[in-house]
């Protein structure tokens, strides 16, 4: 049966005639779409969508070369699918870049806040009584262990524990949390 006869039958409501057209052009249409998309799964999905478009647009077909008309629909649809895919990729890349930038910005802000607090703590250290200042600096700023501090000061570890305890109590009495924020 010729394409024209099948098309007339489809236009008059014969769905079997459309199945015959699909069988006849399925491979050609798939290859055309695959040439644009270069992805088998996407090409298969797009081919199904194209056949639906062809079926719904068949009433507008004017007997001017069915294969050419059908191929034009397929190529246009494949190009649309490819554009949407590229836009999704760009959106994903934009989102990833924005997330990376936000993370970088947050880490810079965190670092600045930390440095600012550290500066305030160092300024406040000068208010501490002399016998507490060194032990607080060594433990919190220099991050030394009790043992290291004790060895440097030629004292027992228990002495360092006691100095830190008293220094913390002194700070609780004389400083407010607002002094550091």
UniProtKB/TrEMBL annotation:
InterPro entries: RNA_pol_sigma-70-like (IPR039425), RNA_pol_sigma-70_dom (IPR014284), RNA_pol_sigma70_r2 (IPR007627), RNA_pol_sigma70_r4_t2 (IPR013249), RNA_pol_sigma_r2 (IPR013325), RNA_pol_sigma_r3/r4-like (IPR013324), WH-like_DNA-bd_sf (IPR036388). Residues 120-170 form the RNA polymerase sigma factor 70 region 4 type domain. Residues 21-86 form the RNA polymerase sigma-70 region domain. One of its GO terms (molecular function) is DNA binding. Keywords: Sigma factor, Transcription, Transcription regulation. GO terms for biological process: DNA-templated transcription initiation. It comes from the Bacteria. Belongs to the sigma-70 factor family. ECF subfamily. This is Sigma-70 family RNA polymerase sigma factor. It comes from Cytobacillus depressus.
